[in-house]
């Protein structure tokens, strides 16, 4: 059984007299431990799909099953509880709280869960260790580089041990070198820790780090074609 199963998902927006349907009867399955990237043109609905899977937005029709939960049927309160325990979100703009330290930003999702202070500390310290920021725990966002801020965002996304991590353009605001570091980190989360990841990106090079690549076209999710291997012919 897939970790994520999407059935007949439809989302519409009204813009004046026009109805826009970025997602039209979408079916999609993501297996436990997969790293999936999603590309598409600007405005194609990539972030919309991510926000629906994350329970941030509501679909007009269809089902989203994550593990044993049908999140399309949960009340707002139960959905918030589910999201805190089972889903991690990596944002493009980091979304760190400027008056909190790196440690406190990573700890935030755990405050919504029932656990002791000691367990929270253990989880936060482990998450900061995974992203290589143990020595920056007491620093505020203004004292961190853009790449360090994004790594704090990744630590916050994984600190609760979520079933699924979604990332929306996680390298979009970073320079090439720093972006490569975040790509390497996401790949490590998948390969070494077995985390299931769904990443939206506009960059084909970033998308290629995922084991499975998808595209959103005309309201439908399609498998991206795998580039054919290049065979070099030896000349006599």
Concise synopsis of the structure shown:
The chain is α/β, with parallel strands linked by helices and about 240 residues long.
Notes on the protein architecture:
- α4 crosses α5 and α5 packs parallel to α6.
- α6 links the parallel β7 and β8.
- The protein starts with a strand and ends in a 13-residue tail after the last strand.
- The chain is built from seven helices and ten strands.
- With 236 residues, the protein is α/β, with parallel strands linked by helices.
- The protein has a domain of 163 residues: P-loop containing nucleotide triphosphate hydrolases (Rossmann fold).
- It is globular, with a radius of gyration of 19 Å.
- Helix content is 31%, strand content 27%.
- The strands form two sheets. It has a six-stranded mixed β-sheet with strand order 6-7-8-3-9-10, sandwiched between helices.
- The model has no long low-confidence stretch (mean pLDDT 91).
Helix and strand topology:
Elements: E1 4-15, E2 18-30, E3 35-40, H1 46-53, E4 61-66, E5 69-70, H2 76-86, E6 87-90, H3 102-107, H4 117-130, H5 146-158, E7 164-168, H6 176-191, E8 196-200, H7 204-207, E9 212-217, E10 220-223
Parallel strand pairs: 3-8, 3-9, 6-7, 7-8
Antiparallel strand pairs: 1-2, 1-4, 4-5, 9-10
Q: How much of the residues is beta strand, in percent? A: 25-35%
**Globular, elongated, flat, extended or rod-shaped: what is the shape?**
globular
Q: Find the structural class using helix and strand composition.
A: alpha/beta
Count all strands and give the number: 10
Task: Using the 3D structure, state the CATH architecture of the domain at 34-45 and 73-223.
Answer: 3-Layer(aba) Sandwich
* Low-confidence blocks of residues: none
User: Which bin fits the share of residues in helices?
Assistant: 25-40%
Q: How many H/I helices?
A: 7
Average predicted local confidence, pLDDT: 91
CATH topology of the domain at 34-45 and 73-223: Rossmann fold
* Top CATH class of the domain at 34-45 and 73-223: Alpha Beta
């Amino acid at each position: 059984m897939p970790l994520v199963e999407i059935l007949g998902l439809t989302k519409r927006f009204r813009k004046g007299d026009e109805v826009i349907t970025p997602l039209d009867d979408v079916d999609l399955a993501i297996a436990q431990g997969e790293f999936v990237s999603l590309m598409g043109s600007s405005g194609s609905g990539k972030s919309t799909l991510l926000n629906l899977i994350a329970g941030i937005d509501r679909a007009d029709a269809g089902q989203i099953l994550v593990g044993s939960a049908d999140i399309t049927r949960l009340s707002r309160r139960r959905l918030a509880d589910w999201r805190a325990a089972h889903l991690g979100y990596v944002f493009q703009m980091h979304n760190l709280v400027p008056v909190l330290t790196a440690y406190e930003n990573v700890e935030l999702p755990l405050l919504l869960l029932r656990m002791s202070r000691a367990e929270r500390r253990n989880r936060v310290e482990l998450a900061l260790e995974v992203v290589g920021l143990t020595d920056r725990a007491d620093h505020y966002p203004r004292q961190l580089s853009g790449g360090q801020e994004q790594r704090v965002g990744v630590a916050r996304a994984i600190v609760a041990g979520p079933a699924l991590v979604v990332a929306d353009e996680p390298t979009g605001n970073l320079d090439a070198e720093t972006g490569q570091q975040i790509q390497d980190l996401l790949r490590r989360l998948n390969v070494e820790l077995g985390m299931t990841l769904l990443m939206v990106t506009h960059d084909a090079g970033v998308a290629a780090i995922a084991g499975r690549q998808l595209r959103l076209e005309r309201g439908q999710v399609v498998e991206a074609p795998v580039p054919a291997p290049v065979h070099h012919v030896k000349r006599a």
